[in-house]
Amino acid sequence: MERIRTPPRPHWQAKLDEIGFPFHTDADGTPYWDESAHWRFSLAEIETLEAAAEEVYRLCEEAVDHVVARRLYEAVGIPRWAAPAIEASWAGRDGLDMALYARFDFAWDGKGGPPKALELNAETPTSLYETAVAQWCWLQDVHPEADQFNSLEEALAERWQARMRTSPGLASRTEAVHFTCLMPHPEDEATIAYLQTLALRAGMTTKAMPIQDIRYDDATGCFLDDRGLPIRHLMKLYPWDWMIRETTGRELVTAAAQGRIRLIEPAWKMVMASKGLFALLWELNPGHPNLLPTALDRAGFPAGGTVVAKPLLGREGRNVSIATLDAAGFPIGQPIAETGGPYSDDGWVYQAFTPLAEADGNHAVFGVWMAGGTPCGLGVREDRALITGNTSRFVPHRIAGT
Amino acid sequence: MKRSRTVAALLLGGFSPILVACGEDGPEAVTVYPSVEACTAEKAAGDCAAAFAAARDEHLASAPRFASRAACEAEMGDGACVPGDENRGSSVGNVFVPALVGFMIGRSLTGSYAQPVYFDRQGYARSGATQIGRLPAVPERKDESRQSSGGGGGSIGSFNSYYRSGDATAGKSFTVPTAGRSAGFGSTGASRGFSGS
After folding, report:
1. Alpha-carbon gap: B55 to the closest alpha carbon of chain A (Å)
2. First to last CA, chain B
3. pLDDT at A64 over 60
4. Rounded CA gap, B116 and B118, in Å?
5. Inter-chain contact B8–A399, Cβ cutoff 8 Å?
6. Considering only CB atoms, which chain A residues are within 8 Å of B180?
7. Do you know which Gene3D superfamilies this protein is assigned to (chain A) (predicted)?
8. ipTM of the complex as predicted
């Protein structure tokens, strides 16, 4: 792999605006989409990432099964009363409660060792449109002859078709899929509009609406849309662990457990999305080459080791710190790096530090996209800092031999 | 090959479902607008006509058909339907179909594709490739109803206008049942900001 500096396309901002991606520049004027460089991978490297993602996803499914079978919900930061929805959806995971998508974050420098999975963003993964469309168009403009690890759109379209096949209501268009997120929120709205586009192409009846406008009818136990129609299938770009703690969260758990509403992602994704799952993964698969030592207790790491602390239910790289620990598990001196944020209440998970790919002072995380259990794309995020956050730059990639 | 053969691109700030092709390196890469007039303001008239023709052909071949205007409007909204045989060259016959209000066009490695989209009375976006089924009826709760102007909140230049009903119900009043209570979702995200990971 190699980071190659490249002149940006002339009028690259306008080109991104044109394809519906005006989010290329942050509010402070720094680019979020960064085509002043790209990453070149060999096909063998891409296949290594692909195989690692497929393998670790399988292990994640086993770990979810372990949590559900033993009801270890509290260990992954989930309240026990959410169990009925999780268990019903896990039982239906090969049918209507199938997964749509997820994104791994891998650390890998390509210098002989295997890729290491840092986490799995299993419920509300970001950078979908950048990966599936913006970098596809970049490649088509700049290297039309080259390939890219990016069949994400086709794979997601196939997932919508698979969902239709499992649901007579969707297949006959007597039921619709509602798409929701916080509104106004231009970037999230664009993401759900893209997912809605793919569902429309699959032939589904769809509707977008603000999550704030969803209603609940106590008489029927159904959630209703802004016209008073029952919501049977709800694609939400909003975390389960927030919804269940909001006004009708317990009603949502019951309605999902009883099949009155199907959510995308399904409730079992709450377990898969918890960062605590990676502690269980290490416990169940100690020494696995694609995993890092991870624990809920920081005393288990060797003295002098560098460890990353993350909130169990954290997002966007917030409230993450990196420090060297002494024999008792306490930080030695100041943290090497840390970020602030609102996620300090729900427990922590500790993971051995591993370096990211680094070039020209940029640290790169490799985001491998999953459609169901199948790896189908790559999005590279870069930052000058060691911790990747929501302002880390998206850098396109291509596949080419050395 | 490890890349998709096609991608669909979104045009932000547009009115209802308008998608554009990316790049400008081929004759198939046509930007699509909600009307021929809007398109020809920026593009060659011939390109606009070709794009609309492709979507219209698909629409005529696959649009849901209704035996009467009343039956069509009952499903699609007041004023949302046109006679199928008004369209020259159509094989739809003596029926009513919803008016085309927009369409998707995406870019592929070899060209482009177009697919019509329209909205029904309830604000559902449907693609034109399939027969429409019956949706559950709106519960009758007239005693608690309130009036609201149509359009589902979609407005030109607004980001929340994606796939929400536009022309079909614009300017019309409809009854919004107020069954149930607010579910209260969104409060955590509103206080914390963004929700992705």
Report:
1. 14
2. 29
3. yes
4. 7
5. no
6. 215-219, 222, 224, 228
7. 3.30.1490.330
8. 0.92
